[in-house]
Amino acid sequence: MSRESLLRVENVSKAFGGVLALSAVDLEVHAGDIVGIIGPNGSGKTTLVNAITGFIKVDHGRVSFKGREITNWKPHKIADMGLTRTFQVMRPYFSLPAFKNLIVPLFSRRARRTGGWRGGGKMGSRDTVAVDILEEIGFERDSYVPYKVASSLPTGYLKRLELARCLALRPELVICDEVFSGLSMSEMASMVPLIEKLQMEGITLIMVEHRLRELFRLANRVVVLNFGCKIAEGTAEEVMGHKEVKEAYFGSEEVLSYV
Amino acid sequence: MTMSVEKGDRRKERLDRGIKVRTDGVYAISSWIEITYLVLPRMALIVGLLALPLVLTHFPYWQRVVSIIGIYALLAIGFDFLANFVGLVSLGGGLYIGVGAYIAALLNSEFGLPTYVTVPAATVLGGALCTMILFPCLPLRGVYFAIVSLMYPLLAGRVIEALNIFGGTDGIIGLDGFSSGWVEQYLLIACVLVALFVLRRMVTEDVGLVFRGVKDNDQAVRASAINITTYKALGVFIAAALGCLGGACLAHIYMWAGISQFALDFSIIPIAATVVGGGGTLVGAVIGCVILVPISEVLRDFGTLRIAVYALILTGFIVFKSEGIMTYATRKYEQTERWVEI
Asked: Which DSSP string do the residues of chain A spell out, in sequence order?
């Protein structure tokens, strides 16, 4: 492939005691892509995200980002290079108003160097830039929502806040860990164009998802994990036609084969 | 629907209405009366603390107690800051006091440096030393950090005793005292007020939000390209430096530094004061000390029984007013209503 590869995961393995959570997983992400990662519960999706972003140390294999090896780097150093993530369990800074949540990433060295999303931090105060980002991501600027304490926000806004926290860093690659789960139909409907907008801004995305319909609309390429192994990779149609994928999701005809 | 407002009508309104309506915490002041509502309680604390030594002019024993209150207040401010804004529950108060006291004592007795050098030097060097000692424990959270930090003051005393260094069990004696009681008391009161002002300002600034982020969700801070260990270490340094400042003053007050300055009291009373005063307010910690330290002095005759009285006070507060005096008082003050012309 002629396009340069932004993230390269090679042969990564991770065991928790006797459980092999990831076994020799390979993944390549090109700049500008949206790559989906799917798989049944416990298939190692979040472990893979943690391994890429440095939140757990891998046993074998290597991860490189923008041509530099980042295997087992500290999370903050990886984020400083422009690779950041959302968390599946949303934990904003509950005691702070929504927009003040973004002060933390805007205070980082990376945001000060790059000016945050769209470089706005070089022009205005952090507070202004924070509200700008929130408005861009769907918090109505003139309402009270950006100023509400995070603990009182509904799930839809918290998911957006997680994304906003990543965007404040002016990232190159964002890994979204289940941004669609727990959203209502209408919240979902507005989240899809948002993701498309981020892609058009030049941000590469990896999306770990259970919501396949929305994911297949967005993703250029889908990777399927099961029991820590990559069992399929390709476009949405290719992947769903794959025999092992059907088995992973719906069980095999020889029921006992996975027991 | 036709309620007409006559000139001269009155209605009741909360004291903080004008302030709350605009936005919480942003002091957009419009009238002198609102400034008064904000400034009055703050001035009461400042003037009250500054007046204490004057009021007690004829009670030199109680003037000394004011100094001790100041030392505990510095520890308690540090504890409240670390626990409620950085998320580290530190029982290292004894370590900070001891390290501060010994550094000031060594600089004074070995190098003959005057108090106005030893106290600032002990503050900075002691803060750095305590941070280095606690650095390996920074990944620990909650009660685990508390346990480890409690170990160090106990350990330090035993090490000095066993190795017979720094004067061993006798301690370092014959240090310079402060030139007068006034210097001693006003130095400590000034330090407490400055620490309060600076820390209360800092926790609302952007850097303070990063500290609070570390407390609320350290993983999200790491994902935001910020090194949490740096900020935890900085937090510990601030709390430790405040404690060491108190320790250095303590050494010069008693003109002596010894093993008993690693005492457990310095680790425990700041927590009790923070609970009584109201955690997360910083001022509450000071108010807690102003209440608890004199009680502790009054109960001195009862010996170790005062621990039982302490326990009773603490239990009472936790059961009946777990939010603490300051949080309660702030709420009640702001809810106070006044008549306004409409």
From this structure: --SPEEEEEEEEEEEETTEEEEEEEEEEEETT-EEEEE-STTSSHHHHHHHHHTSS--SEEEEEETTEE-TT--HHHHHHTTEEE--SS----TTSBHHHHTHHHHHSHHHHHH-SGGGGGGTS-HHHHHHHHHHHTT--TTSSGGGSBGGGS-HHHHHHHHHHHHHTT--SEEEEESSSTT--HHHHHHHHHHHHHHHHTT-EEEEE-S-HHHHHHH-SEEEEEETTEEEEEESHHHHHT-HHHHHHHH--SSGGGG-
